[in-house]
TrEMBL record:
Main localisation: other
Record bears the keyword Transport: yes
Gene name of the record: malE
UniProt-recorded name of the protein: Maltose-binding periplasmic protein
Signal peptide extent: 1-20
Compartments reported by the entry: Cell envelope
UniProt KW keywords: Signal, Transport
Cellular component terms per the entry's GO annotation: cell envelope
Source organism of this protein record: [Clostridium] nexile
Sequence similarity: Belongs to the bacterial solute-binding protein 1 family.
InterPro entries registered for this protein in UniProt: Bact_solute-bd_prot1 (IPR050490), Bind_CPR0540 (IPR022387), SBP (IPR006059)
Positions in coiled-coil regions: none
Amino acid sequence: MKMKKIVALFLSAAMVASMAVGCGSKDDGKKDASSDGKTVLKFAAFEGGNGTEIWEKIADAFEKSHENVEVELEMSSELDKDLTKDFQNGDIPDVVYYNLGQPSGFTETMLKENAIADLSDVFDEELTSKLVGGITENSAAQPYGDGKVYLAPITYTPTGFWYNKDLFGEGKYTLPTTWEEFFALGDQVKAEGKSVFTYPTTGYFDTTMYQMLAQAGGMDFYNKAVQYDKNTWTSAEGKEVVDTIAKLASPEYLWSDTVANANADGGFKLNQQAVIDGQALFMPNGNWVIGEMADSTPEGFNWAMMAQPKFSADQENYVYTYTEQMWVPAEAPNLDLAKEFIEFMYSDEVVDLMLANETTDKETGEKTATPIVPPVLGASDKLPEGPVKDSYTLVSQDGYNAVSGVWATTEAINGFDMSKTVYGAIDALNTGDLTADAYQKQLVDAWATCLEHLK
């Protein structure tokens, strides 16, 4: 595949025209070498909240384990723009750390052009047995749904329903494991003047819906759903998801101030506070809520996270996890070495480096512990005791599977807002302005639109 085809998707028409002569494979496809004869592995990494030192340390560690290799590290907060220039000049990196879901859609475009290498041989049985269950069996790792891994999940953050741990246990409420038990608990606490559920904003239903789709129909159903399969919402599984969301958002189970707060400036924190104050029992969230609410959380309060309920007791649990991805361009000069680097990311040495990560405040120079958790079994065991560690331990247990991925990227659709259509409508389920049947039809129509404009 010619790289200029990919570059054209990111550049203006004028830039594409000027590029046509200069684009192509550099040095006749020869592998880059340093002045001392070492093979140069080019690693392009997005510079984000994890800081820069972690990538420098990983690069150094890889060099020490491969004495004839030099890692050339490129870090940028505008990596998509820099990579576009690199590809334009035929300067193709060997390894890229740049996630799905970025505004530029760079990784998605590379996938659409079949410009990312198949990494399935890296994720053999030996390696996958070391990883959190299901972490490579989803659309984020297998974007084509062909059973092959193209994007390596290098970090993960579990999400679920967060609650006050001290309200549950012997002589207290019983944690629900199924939706039937969840709504039964809702009926119980309603009689006590409480609600079983709230949400910060409707946007938090993204993780809730992803998990429900996997829970209702399994990973095959889920992977088809995120690719806008036309039968998603007319199927029995899809209808079950719609009906459960409608019931969850109904006045019978949703805290009364949820919708008003969710649509007010900063009101999401008021809904989160409702869980702290005991007005609502559960909310969808991630471990960042602990930091967000630290100033208003009373001393001695104990956060906890549970997996979202199952539709039947005999099902395994699914937990939606955000992942960050690393990948290899199909035309990487050092393809085999790049795959070794990907495998190295799951080594004990890198796991320890990531867990010990610190970021430095550029103004004060103060260092803060910011552990990065790779999806390696046992890695989260090394975290400090507390709710963050517990949330990771949950998804590592037997019978629990990680779900990841996002709705497939579409072309720009005039007048269509995916977030408002899918999540924003949930407010209307509470107010009665939208019925479950109307919501289902809205989703069916949305999926038809997205499928038509799928890139």
